[in-house]
Amino acid sequence: MQIHHQTYIKVNPEKVYQTLTTAEGWNAWFTDHTVLYLNENGEGKITFRWSNYGAKKENIEDGGDILTAIQNKLFVFQWSPGDGKTTVKFELKPVKEGTLLLLEETGYTASNKDLSVCIGCAAGWGEALTLLKMYLEYGIVCKDDYRF
């Protein structure tokens, strides 16, 4: 099972890349206390954190290795939302005055838990890319209001 999304963001790839490869970038539009370490070889670690998230007001933490970071082009990390690790790839392509952002998540198994998580992440990534677009294009941050 795979997840695929794409969106056009009317800002340059440099700004999109900076947002995806820094803790400050993620915390500005999506998470609360993400920690990210990226070395000069384009590898590192990422830990996403959400506080009081959702209807159950849960504290959630997930993350893993950053596998590849190619400046203004590609950001790939692993995390474990289901039974095992999945790989999330953000590919940035310059288009007109902005960036075509392609997202792919792979690695889900056919287990019941992975099927359920994959469905949730498929919807979640679509919503997340909309939040990223609103943040980068208009400076709108709706993550606090967005929580159910």
From TrEMBL:
Residues 11-137 form the Activator of Hsp90 ATPase homologue 1/2-like C-terminal domain. InterPro entries: ASHA1/2-like_C (IPR013538), START-like_dom_sf (IPR023393). SUPFAM superfamilies: Bet v1-like (SSF55961). Belongs to the AHA1 family. This is SRPBCC domain-containing protein. Gene3D superfamilies: 3.30.530.20. It comes from the Bacteria. It comes from Cytobacillus citreus.
